[in-house]
Amino acid sequence: MCTLEKRGDLFFLTLTGDGEHRFSPTVIDSLILVLSQVKSQAVRGSALITTAHGKFFSNGFDLSWAQAAGSSSGARERLHHMVESFRPVASALLSLPMPTIAAINGHAAAAGFLFALSHDYVLMRHDRGVLYMSEVDLGLTFPDYFTAMMRSKIGSVSARRDILLRGMKIKGEEAVRMGIVDAAHESVGEAAVHLGEQLGQRKWNGEVYAEIRKSLYPEVCGVLGLAPKTVIASSKL
Fold first, then answer.
1. Ramachandran region, residue 19 (left: φ > 0; alpha: ψ -120 to 50; beta: rest)
2. Do residues 95 and 87 lie in contact, with contact meaning Cβ atoms separated by under 8 Å?
3. Would you tell me how many other CB atoms lie within 10 Å of the CB of residue 122?
4. Residue 19 — pLDDT band, cuts 50, 70, 90?
5. Does residue 7 sit in helix, strand or coil?
6. Rounded distance, CA 227 to CA 211, Å?
7. Which residues contact 88 (CB under 8 A, 6 or more apart)?
8. Which helix (H) or strand (E) holds 3?
9. How confident is the model at residue 136, as a pLDDT?
10. Angle ∠(130,4,110) on CA atoms, nearest 5
11. 12 to each of 5, 16, 81, 180, how far by Cα in Å?
C-alpha cells in the first residue's frame, strides 16, 4: 500500500513494505486517493516526493492478480482493468499544483517506470536499482499513454528505442547520461528533500504551475484528456 506524510510544505508519498510494490487495483485506488489529498492540501511552496521502502520502487502491475483469473481471457481483462485504472494516477501527477519528485530507491519496471516518469524530476540511487520496460520481453504491447509519456519525457530517440524495443535495464549513472533521470545519488532521499525545499522556496502559484506543465507535455496530456487552460494569477498585472 502507500502512506502520505507532510513535513512542513513537503508531502511524502511512500510505497510501503519490503515487496515489489506491484500496482494491484487496491494499490491503484490508494494512490488516487492519496494524490487527491495532496492536491486538496496544496499551498504555495508545496512539493511532492514519492519513494518506496526496500529494494523496489515498483515492479509494475500486479500480474499475479491478473493470472489468478484462471484463463487467458480473464487475465487479459484484469490487465486491461489495471491499465485503465492507472490512467488517473498519471493524470493526477501531471495536473498536481506543485513540483513533483520521484526518488527511486531501487528497481522501477514497467508501470513503475511510467509512474516515476510522471513526476517532474526523477532521481535514482547510483549504486542500486534499474529502470526497465519489460513489455517487449513479456510479449505485451504498450498502452497509448505509456508511449506518449516516453515521447514526452525522454528526448533521445535512441534512448526510447533501447527502453521500449530492446528492453534495456538501465542503472542510475547510465540513466543520467541517457537523459532519462536528472541525477543519481548515494542518498536519493536526502537529495530529493534538498531539491523539494529548493523548489518550494520559489512559492509558485500551484494552479499556474500545473497549467504550464500541461502545456509543456501536450501529447501525453491530450491522450489522458488533460486540456490546459489559461490562468492569470499575477499581482503584477
1. beta
2. no
3. 25
4. very high
5. strand
6. 9
7. 32
8. strand 2-7
9. 96
10. 25
11. 5, 12, 27, 22
pTM above 0.85, yes or no: yes
**Helix and strand totals (H; E) in the chain:** 11, 9
- The residue with cell 489559461 is 230
| Residue 192 pLDDT greater than 60, yes or no | yes
* Contact between 233 and 46 (Cβ < 8 Å): no
CA–CA separation, 18 vs 114, rounded Å? 20
Beta bridge partners of 10: 7, 47
Contacting residues for 189 by C-beta, under 8 A, at least 6 apart = 51, 103, 105
pLDDT in tens, 193-209: 999 999 999 999 999 99
β-pairing, 56-58 vs 10-15, is unpaired
List beta partners, residue 170: 131
Q: Please report, rounded to a whole number, the percentage of residues in the chain having pLDDT higher than 90.
A: 92
Phi and psi at 104, nearest 5°, equal -80, 110
For the chain, the straight-line distance linking the first and the last C-alpha, in angstroms and rounded, comes to: 45
- Residues found in the chain: 237
Measured distance CA(20)–CA(54) in Å, rounded: 8
CA pair distance 151, 100, nearest whole angstrom = 19
